[in-house]
Predict the 3D structure of the following.
Amino acid sequence: MTAELLSEATEHQRRARVALSAALASGPSHAYLFRGPRGAGKAGVARAFAAELLAAAAADPDDARRRAMLDPSPHPDLVWLRPPGAQHMVEEVREKVIRAASYRPFEAEKRVFVIEAAEAMRDEGQNALLKTLEEPPGFVHLILLTAEPAQLLETVASRCQPIDFAPLPPEAVEAQLADLGSPDEIAAAARLSAGDVSRARFLLSGSGRTLRSTALELGRVVGGDSPDTQRESASAESPPTTPTAWRQLLDAAETAGEETEAATRKALEDEAEAGMKRSAKDITDEAKRAGRRRRTEVLDLGLELAGSWYRDLAAAASGAEEVVFNQDRLEELRGRAASLDPSRPRRALELVQDTRRRLDLNVSEELALEALAFRLAAVFA
């Protein structure tokens, strides 16, 4: 049963399967760090691994596995911590993990604690967890899941055995997107998702489709136009700055940030009413942080999608259509790539990537995008 359960959960994660199967055979570590992109299946593998740990010495192993695999799980020795809002609160980590880890198992010989989105723990929470990671009771196993390992303190990461997860292949992502769009649209979302099923689903949602259309419009208007449009641009007194395209991208990011801030504020206020200790200032600060983070994520995704247009233009112009990401725009790409020097869209992609790096340094988003539009226009002038 062990091989079957882990094999199913790690179907596309061979390295994780080998490492965890070996751990179960030789003796598991006290702490693991599952690191890899969102949507790579870390939570499913963590649940299957936890089920095997709890079943190992259970009176009824099959029943222990069954209960551990449920979500939420009724197994008393499996504690699964998800961030309730934008971040794990310090008191939650203290109560549900640190203090609870001192209690002996209720029915199994082990207790398993899983912390989803471990990067969302505040520094205070991570520091509080250090002693438990360093000297846990012999019956305790901790599993931290993260899509952003760089956000974890080195002192935390170094005390865990890393288990790496690779992005899912496009065909595996496509298999989870049935009926969410046309075959070509699903193929495009799978390739643009970089193996992240949740991102692929977002791209096929109403908001995701709008963001993608806006991002691709930035690519279309500035570069890769038909010869007639290029001649019209060249005859203008100044290069096209595409204010609508890049400003729409900013607006889309701003809207996403505001929606996330409002949703986070509502969730935190509900929890405060239910008895969780949170001050009004804590709620406001955390909601704003969540909104800013979402705004930044959406803006970066929009630029990444715009860059995918230039990447695909270069591929089509080079006769390599089989590697095109935007499969549902293939006919349009063919038309725009005709007689186009592939070096131009490649240079445009470099400029987009440079802007993404600049935004990481907290430069003005508006000025950075406006400058990008001028620089892109110059490439195709």
Q: What stands out?
A: The chain has two domains: 2-164, 205-380.
